[in-house]
């Protein structure tokens, strides 16, 4: 009678394990597709700052005419 909790714990462990597998799969698929981990909570300000940073880096990489 003391092993009755195992009857509920086993399916719960399987469900928790599958949730972990699915979460990690999403992480690695996104990283493979975009080359970097997903930015959590990315709003319009973050998008604007990424565009600004990308433009600044492109301007810095262009050689200046001498």
List low-confidence stretches: none
Distance between the termini: 86 Å
Residue fraction in strands:
under 5%
What is the CA-atom radius of gyration, in angstroms?
23 Å
Report the order of strands and helices. Answer: HH
Structural class: mainly alpha
Main sheet characteristics: none
Give the overall pLDDT as a whole number: 89
Tally of alpha and pi helices: 2
User: What gross morphology would you assign?
Assistant: rod-shaped
Helix content, binned percent: over 70%
Total strands: the figure is 0
Pfam family, one: MWFE
Family: Belongs to the complex I NDUFA1 subunit family.
Organism: Hevea brasiliensis (Para rubber tree)
Membrane topology: Single-pass membrane protein
Structure in words:
This is NADH dehydrogenase [ubiquinone] 1 alpha subcomplex subunit 1. It comes from Hevea brasiliensis. Belongs to the complex I NDUFA1 subunit family. The protein has 66 residues and is mostly helical. The chain is 74% helix and 0% strand. It has 2 helices and no strands. It has helices at residues 4-34, 44-61. It is rod-shaped. The termini are far apart. The model has no long low-confidence stretch (mean pLDDT 89).
Keywords:
rod-shaped, respiratory chain, mitochondrion, NADH_Ub_cplx-1_asu_su-1, single chain, mainly alpha, 66 residues, NADH dehydrogenase [ubiquinone] 1 alpha subcomplex subunit 1, membrane
Please sum up the structure shown.
The chain has two helices and no strands.
SSE arrangement:
Layout: H1 4-34, H2 44-61
